Amino acid sequence: MLASLFVGIVAIEHIYILILEMFLWTTPRGLKAFGMTKEQAQETKSFAANQGLYNGFLAAGLVWGLVHPDASIGRSIEIFFLICVIIAALYGGATAKRSILLVQGLPAVIALLFVLL
User: What whole-number distance in Å separates Cα of residue 22 and Cα of residue 48?
Assistant: First the structure.
């Protein structure tokens, strides 16, 4: 049960990131979340939307794992997508913003540990 809860939290987080990157990038909320000026956001808007789409794929995969009718296959799907999130967080933390390690990586690591237990 805890595993499903934490996987769900990671999925919801990535849906929120999708919304920020695809739809709110140039709004005050998006500017604050990513520490950008209006000009920077405008210049990178299409890049951010693409990034948001990828976050949506991560969320969709996690939800797929949660709702899969065969629990063992669902667990494998969850493991795969959680590892994808962790790798993305490691890369983002190393190349973009260190806080990504905590904001995206840590919840995914916790969820993965619960799924594996």
Answer: 6
Contacts of 12 (CB under 8 A, 6+ apart): 59
Q: CA gyration radius for the chain?
A: 15
Contact 43, 6 (CB under 8 A): no
pLDDT digits (tens, 9 = 90+) for 20-76: 999 999 999 999 999 999 999 999 999 999 999 999 999 999 999 999 999 999 999
Question: Considering only CA atoms, which of 106, 16, 23 is closest in space to residue 56?
Answer: 16
Residue 36 tokens, joined: 């950008």
Burial of 19 (0-12, 13-18, 19+ CB in 10 A): middle
pTM of the predicted model as reported, rounded to 2 decimal places = 0.93
